Amino acid sequence: MNMKRKYQISIEETLRKTIFVEAESEAEAYQMAEDLYNGEQVVLTPDDFVEYGIYVEKEVTENDKN
Questions:
Q1: pLDDT of 14-66, one tens digit each?
Q2: Is 26 a domain residue?
Q3: Which of 13, 36, 38, 63 pairs with 21 at a CA distance of 20 to 30 A?
Q4: Residue 13 is assigned to a structural domain of this protein
C-alpha cells in the first residue's frame, strides 16, 4: 500500500511594472518610486504578470503544527 505524504508547497508570482521618474539622483528616483507605490499611485495588476515559480519547501511530518 502506498502511503501518501504531505508537502509544504509555495507558489510565488512576480509582477513588474516599469515607470519613469525625473530625479536628481538614483536615490531620489528610488524614493520617488517607493512613495508612488506606497501612495497607491502605481498599482500592479494581473496585466503586469511576469512569471511564477512552484517550490517544494519540505515534507510535513506529524511534528509540524500546520
A1: 999 999 999 999 999 999 999 999 999 999 999 999 999 999 999 998 777 65
A2: yes
A3: 13
A4: yes
